[in-house]
Amino acid sequence: MEPIGAVAAGSEAGLEAEVPEARWHRPHGPMALTGIIRFVALYSLEFALNLPALFRLRSWYRRVKSVHAEEPMVACVGENLDEVNGIALTSRIMLRELRNLGKQVFIFGTAFHEKQPRSEGPDGSVVMAPGRYSMDQAGYAASEVAMLRLDSFIHFLRMHPVDVIEFQTPGPVSVQCLVAARFAGIKTLSHYRTDIITYSKLLVKNRLGVWIINTWTTLMTRWMGPVVVPSEAYRKKVQEMGVPIGRIYKLPRGVDFKNFHPEKAANGAWRAFGLPEEGIRLMYVGRVSREKNLDALADAFPSVAARTPGVSLTVVGAGPYLEGLKERFAGRKDVFFTGVVHGESLSGLFASADILVFPSLTDTFGNSVVEALASGIPCITSDEGGPREIIVDGECGLVFDHALPGDLEAKILALAGDPAKLLAFKAKARERAMQFTYDRSAHAFWDFYTRYHNNRL
Questions:
Q1: DSSP label at 256?
Q2: Who is most buried in 44, 276, 279, 292, counting CB within 10 A?
Q3: How far apart are CA 347 and CA 262, in angstroms?
Q4: Considering the domain boundaries, does residue 334 fall inside one?
Q5: Inside any domain, residue 4
Q6: Residue 103 sits in the same domain as residue 27
C-alpha cells in the first residue's frame, strides 16, 4: 500500500453493457498444489475455448483499424486493481488526468472474487471484469492470483478497439490479454512498477516457486514490448533481465499537490488518532510488509528514542507484517499504529509530522516520499530503489547506507537532533516535490503512447 489520497468511488451502473455475465462469481481457493493444478488446467482450457473468437477478433481488428488515427486509444491492464495499493490508485489517477486532457484511455482488470464485476465512473472507463478462478497470493493476504474470463476482454476490445495496451504487472491476467493483443495486432508495452523478483525472494519460501516467478517475470517483461520504468535504478534492473537499454524508458510520476500541502497541518490532526503532538514526530507511511525493510527501522528506533527525548514513531498503513512489527515494538509507549488512512486525515498527518522514514529497498518509485515532500516534511530513505532518486541528499532529506550497520539510526539522529537543519530541510521539501506533478506525468505518458503508436520511439 502506498496511500496517495482520495480517489473517486466507482459505480456499477452500465456494467451489463460492458462485461458479459456481469453477476457471475468465480470460485476461489488457497495457494496449494490442488489449486495450482486446477488453475493451470482452467488457464489452458480458457485459451482453447476462446481460440475461434481470437481468430475472429484478428479479422475484425484489421477492418476496424484500416484507417490510421494520429492519436491512439489506450488501455491499461492490471492485476489486483480491487486492492488498496499504489498501482491500483495511481492507475486510476493517471486515467483521470488523461481523461481530463480529452484522451481516450481505459483501465481493464478482474474484480476480486468477493466483489461484483462492474464498470466504474460516469463514462465506464474502468472495467473490472469477471474471472474464471483465483487463489490467494503468497505473502499478501489481501491479494489474489486470478485468471480472466477471456471472452470479457475480447468483448471489451470490440467495444473499445484500442491501439496501445500498457500492462501494469506481468501476471496471469496480463498474459491472457497479451495473447489476445497479439492476435489482434495491438501494440503492447509494460510498466515495471513492482520489484516482483526481489519480492519473491523475500516472501516466497519455496525455492522452486521463486524460480518460477522470476523466470515468468523475466520472460513476460521481454515479450510485452517496450518497458516503462519510474527510476534509473529500475532501468538497470530491467536491463539485467535481458531487455535492450534502447527499449527501456523512464517516465515521470506525480502526486496530488492540492491534497498534500504544508497548509494541511492543523491542530488536532494527530490528536484525532491518539498520537502525541509534542516532540519530534517520525512517521512511516506504506504497506506494512517485510520487503519494506521495516526491521531496520525497528532496530534503529529504540536507540534514537534513548538519545532524543520526546521522539515518537507512527506507522500508517496495513499489511501482512503488521502484527509482526507490533510485536517488535511491544511495550513501547512511543510507537503508534493508525491502520490505513486516506483523504484529509492522511494529508493532516503528513503535514503535521516532522520526518518521514522510508527504509524500503524494493520500491520502484515511492509515492509516500513525494507526498511527504509536498507536505513540507523531509524524508530519510535507503540508498536502494526509486525513493533515493527523489531525495536530494543533504537538502530535503538524507539517504542512509542500508549495508552499513547503524547508519539509519545515525541519519535519523542527525536530522531529529538538529532543529536548524530540520527547519532548513522542511523549507526545501515542497520545492523538490514540485518536480513530480500529475500534469507533467500525464503529458509525458501521452507523448510516449502517441510516439509509440506512430512508430516514432
A1: -
A2: 292
A3: 9
A4: yes
A5: no
A6: yes
